[in-house]
Amino acid sequence: xxxxxxxxxxxxxxxxxxxxxxxxxxxxxxxxxxxxxxxxxxxxxxxxxxxxxxxxxxxxxxxxxxxxxxxxxxxxxxxxxxxxxxxxx
Length: 89
Hints:
The protein has 89 residues and is an all-alpha fold.
């Protein structure tokens, strides 16, 4: 179950990133549209994080809760490090 949650979280993070930069959906043409896209992706990200954490805590699935939280919190950090590391990004 935890592996399925991790895979789902990674897909959600990738889709939200692609949507926020305009690869999925309409490409932002102005600064206001770009800001709105990032804010929308951020709200969806934190909503997925909170709803998932609450859901797995209520169902008393500690391994799945840990997998969800670690994936959702570490994947943006890992992406940021990969983009800033020369030769890797």
